[in-house]
Amino acid sequence: MKTLATAPTQGLHGKLDVPGDKSISHRALMLGAIAQGKTTIDHFLAGEDCLSTLEALRALGVEITRTNTTVIIRSAGRSAFKKPQKPLDMGNSGTTTRLLMGLLAGTNFTTTLVGDSSLQKRPMRRVSEPLAKLGVRVETTEQGTLPAKIYGGEVRASTVKLNVASAQVKSALIFASLMADEPSQIIEKLPTRNHTEIMINQFGGQIKTAADQRTITVQPKPKLIGQHVIVPGDMSSAAFFMVAATIIDNSDITLTNVNLNPTRTGILEALRKMGADITVTPVENKGEKIGNIRIKAAKLHAITIDAKDIPALIDELPLVALAAACADGATKISGAQELRVKETDRIATVAMELRKFGIDITEFPDGLEIVGSQEWKVVDTQLDSHKDHRLGMMLAVAALRVRTKLTLKNATAIAVSYPNFFEDLELLLKNTKDGD
Length: 436
Ligand SMILES: O=C(O)C1=C[C@@H](OP(=O)(O)O)[C@@H](O)[C@H](O)C1
Ligand SMILES: C=C(OP(=O)(O)O)C(=O)O
Hints:
single chain, alpha/beta, UDP-n-acetylglucosamine1-carboxyvinyl-transferase, Chain, 2 domains, four-stranded mixed beta sheet, 12 helices, 23 strands, 28% helix, binds shikimate-3-phosphate, binds phosphoenolpyruvate, Enolpyruvate_Tfrase_sf, 3-phosphoshikimate 1-carboxyvinyltransferase, transferase, cytoplasm, EPSP_synthase_CS
């Protein structure tokens, strides 16, 4: 049980270089594995999810060494993958699972994927069904869940229309399409994070996105060559401190080299709409956009968020709910049913845990309504991450709003995406206004 910091008197201060982006770290490993030659990854996120990807690729015979946040991959490409000795353990990582389903298409062996109790509940038909249109066979349980078997074989080019807005599904299809003989087209429901497209092009491939931002054309059989990737800071991790600094009086912090890819900055826009004080200074970079973000404490007001806003802040919705709980008025989030199939049912767990602070919050099948309040009243001092990293971190930030001593159950889940979260939070709390 972790005791949480509460009611800092001076707010949060100082500069922080947030850890590498989780989505980009996964993709850098996978691209390094299917490219020829040496790939170096710097500022890699050594969180449990990305380590699941790293170990799975090692089990496929790829040579990978890691020293802290630097990873070196030496590969002869996807054709050199070897049948793993045992089922690959995906741990808690949906991204590892779904992207690997596409990456393993076109091998000449069958691979079994297994996962932890949370991952075993998450839907996989959203990947196996569109992959079937490319001739790729993925067998799941009858419920459409893990364990899954991916049968390597020929990949047939096709045009595939996706009926769920998911970068994981899109990326699996892109990885599989690379193995076909003709170009494929993937049509998204709504634009989602495009790190796979950007990185494949950086490695020498050819992926084109049409002006509608939803139609992706994949040129097959590219010659992918190992690269040097410097992973930008993770907007999804930065977001915890952006919200913390906004809702805790006297705060003034700067987060450096954060990924500013517009498919990921939904939280920044939502907070700004709510009245947050955020200044972004772009930093020059090849490929992904990055910049420094300065956030000062501010008074917030309610907003509405609907389906079209969701993909760009999908993982930050627990934080939007927290910001809304501190804002004037009632915030309505709709079109967010995807939250029900994340590490936990994040609509239910966010509502359950924020109610422990006395917040008036209503659940809907596809979202939440949160009535903001300046007077929080703790009704239960034992918070629970429910083994969901993002919920755990959101609750640690929420705790800063109250004076009551609070504990967090299942705090270790935070290592899935941010192993040093509590150390970094402590740093920002220790810095004083004058002595940054
Ligand atoms: O592609 C990715 O790296 C991710 C995509 C999102 O999932 P979906 O594609 O299922 O929405 C997100 O929630 C997840 O944390 C990472
Ligand atoms: C949903 C998440 O990750 P994944 O789908 O990779 O488990 C997340 O990091 O919030």
